[in-house]
What does this fold into?
Amino acid sequence: MPELPEVETVRRNLEATVLGRTIQSVRLSGKKLRDPISRNLGTRIRNRRIESVSRHGKFLLIDLDEDQTLISHLGMSGRWLFYDEPPGPLPHVHVRIAFADGTELWFQDPRRFGLLRLVSTSRRSRDPALSKLGPDPIATPLRGNWLFERARGARVAIKSYLLDQSRVAGIGNIYASEILHRAGVSPRRPAGALTAREWDAVADEIARVLGEAIDRMGTTFSMYRTLWNEPGTYGDQLLVYDRAGEPCRRCGGTIRRIVQSQRSTFYCPRCQSLRRRRPALSIARGQSGA
DNA sequence: ATCCTATCCTGTAGGC
DNA sequence: TGCCTACAGGATAGGA
It folds into this structure.
């Protein structure tokens, strides 16, 4: 569910809401997420003040005072929810953080693929979850040539390559398809076979698609919500994702769904040709020979 | 090193 | 209506 734009939206929401607040009490569900939540998490973050909220790729980093950082990943179905007045019990709420003024911050995650881990702020970037991440494309705008050089020799399909968080951090299954469609690159091309020009187009579209999605508070396909339980509106802008069989908005061709690395990929075979453009001569010769 | 597969978990949509 | 299966925006360990 949540990719970079959704996580950035939540980060901004958290920054606007809980920055400077001091945690008064914590309640845990006791259920394990991707990893078990530390049993003493509550005692370790009680009385800590929230100093900053940052993000790398899909990871949120909530820095507290006393050299503590809460690392959070939303997985497929995680949500942070803020309440001025907390409602009655909700299912799948694994952490409830209460502040002194009665407001609360909840972490809800039905599928429990999310992550919550407390680490030392000074050593946070050495955490195994963060240490292997590639650059965050919002913090560090990517250059086509840098991507081109780095992908040299990679035989994996460009779609799967963009999902690899150690290459670029933050792109997920929806935006990978959208980015490649706008760049006019077939998702089936080997990453190492893209030309420098094509990487320029991919780099431009990474910045443009992610930026516009942040402006619209992300894409709500089903689970994702902002901190105030509102849907994002980038879903209106999707050109290929979940549109199999429908007409391409650019060329009128039919959007196709394929499976790559066991994930759905959507693309327009006409706009996103598998072959690089060939000289007109070879086409003419093929016709005359028929 | 690279690449692929299976796995963790619940909710939901679609077929019958 | 209800039952069953397939699938869903994620990362990661382990094997080829």
Q: What stands out?
A: Residues 34 and 113 of chain A are 5 Å apart (CA to CA).
